[in-house]
Amino acid sequence: MEKIIYNVTLADGIRYDLLLRNGQFAAIAKTGKLENSSTAEHMDGTGCLLLPPLVDAHAHLDKTMLGMKWFHNNLGPLLSERIANERESRRKVGLDSCIQAGKLIERSISMGTLAMRSHVDIDTANGLSCLEGVLEARERYRDCFYTELVAFPQSGLVSRPGTIELMEEALRLGADLVGGIDPAAVDRDPKGSIGAIFSLAEHFDKGVDIHLHEPGELGAFTMELIADHTIASGLQGRVTLSHAFCLGSLEERRANALTELLSDAGIQITTGGQAYVPAVPSVKQLLNAGVNVCGGNDNVRDMWSPYGTGDMIERAQLIAMRNGFRRDEDLELALKICTENGAKLLQLEGYGISEDNSADFLLVRADNIAECVAAGPRERQVFKAGVLIAENGKYLS
Ligand SMILES: [Zn+2]
Fold it and tell me: Could you tell me the distance, in angstroms and rounded to a whole number, from the CA of residue 208 to the centre of ligand 1?
């Protein structure tokens, strides 16, 4: 099975012809330089930009209410109120995590995302039901969509007896990483909470991904503790902090020192560039210090946020805007955060537009990456191993 895609633009702005064979990129050559093949299927890529698959490094497959009745959000500003609301409301609103995860996976694929790290709630009210549903959905889409799952004790880890045992069960059942949330602000016991997270990670030989919303000095203190534990347990390169809002609100010297610490501990950061939070970390400051930064949609139309479409090109645009990016090279950086950097976090093998890699890619109507990020074209074709699996917002099952 051979296919030639003619005259597409790659990231360098130059036009190429690509030969796909047996699901891989067999040859990539400047337009007109590829040897002609009469047996191959021919496709004209004129006017299209070819991108590697988008990667959503921070999602919540078990939370989305996509396609369900609108959730009337009358909640107050407190994190604790929103956590309790979701824990108690899941059953009442009939949120089936398997069905909903399937909807968000199909939505993601239709927009060109083929890999995701999703947190999944583990708590004493819902037990492992969210994880069981998401594991079933992961299995169903395994051939075209890579999913990594974080066991996420959103209601608290050490502050709610019975949660650590459920986390152990979740890791045995198939969760890939140990999650956590605001060890000081939610668990009220930073040393106990971080100690428990790292002890689970060491025991099960798993990575860690912690939601850190804590602001200012409180967030900085927690971050230092997490970095200490990361180094002490030899988990450099396997720990992620999601959001790390405190970095955006601290004075420059303090933020720089923490960034250096993150770099030394090999801690990676996921960010969403949301407009409705007071501060976000500067992605350039982190990247310049050697810290990998990845993009994630986080909440998509759920009890936490009425916003979100599941589109990682739109997410790149939001990250770019929140970081004050206008120059082409900065918009390219925003897209890199939502593609290559996420692939690095998820350790995806054979990712990218290179000969012998799996022919996974998307085609969008744009002249270059900057235009793609700024305009967010909806006209897209998504390919997995050379096969068209989504077109213009529709997943082709
Ligand atoms: Zn989250």
Answer: 14
